[in-house]
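Hey, I'm writing a tutorial for new members on how sequence and structure tokens pair up, and I'd like a real worked example in the thread rather than a made-up one. If someone can provide the structure for the chain below, I'll link this post from the tutorial.
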Amino acid sequence: MNICVRYFASIKDDMGIGIANIQVNDDMTVGKLFEQLTADKPYSGIVLMAVNHEYVNSSYKLKDGDEVAYFPPVTGG
């Protein structure tokens, strides 16, 4: 499957890129994908995950063409 991955804020800084188009296995979840993508650059903070502009939990099963976003919690004031 083809997936578009976007990284934001400190995760983007740690990964060194903002967007990547990648191939994943058919049984991939958004949480497993993050673990694989950060295996050599472990991220220790809280990670929020979205697929196609909607928040999802880490067990969400990806589909071909999904757009995945990983970002830390956002605060403002």
